[in-house]
Amino acid sequence: MTQARILTGGCACGRLTFETKGEPKRVGLCHCLTCRKVSGAAFNAFVIFPVDQVTISGEMRGWSATPESERCFCPVCGSQVFDRDAGDEIEIKLGAFDGTNLFTPTYEAWTKRREDWLCTPDLKSFPENRE
Q1: Where does the record place the CENP-V/GFA domain (predicted)?
Q2: Is 52 helix (H, G, I), strand (E, B) or coil?
């Protein structure tokens, strides 16, 4: 019997943490204006897990960019850690994991807002939301 892979991560100050079990549903990049603004970066790298494969510990705050999602962050250090949607998925920021080189994105969304200097030739690209 194979044991599910367990990964950990959290915010910069360590007060908001998470643990994932198993493999993600998908890994991607987003260039939408909201992701750019909230991260202060040219794009957002994220990993999508089924919500029942993620355990969250610690205090968090959130705000909603859309009625179906909530962007969650640590109220102490302000680190963005994950986004929750109204369904069965949770989007964890790739940089919030404790380890590196854990995942490789396979697609990118909102490429019509991608910086011209950013070249991602091996990714499936969507001009707006993923289909």
Answers
A1: 7-108
A2: helix
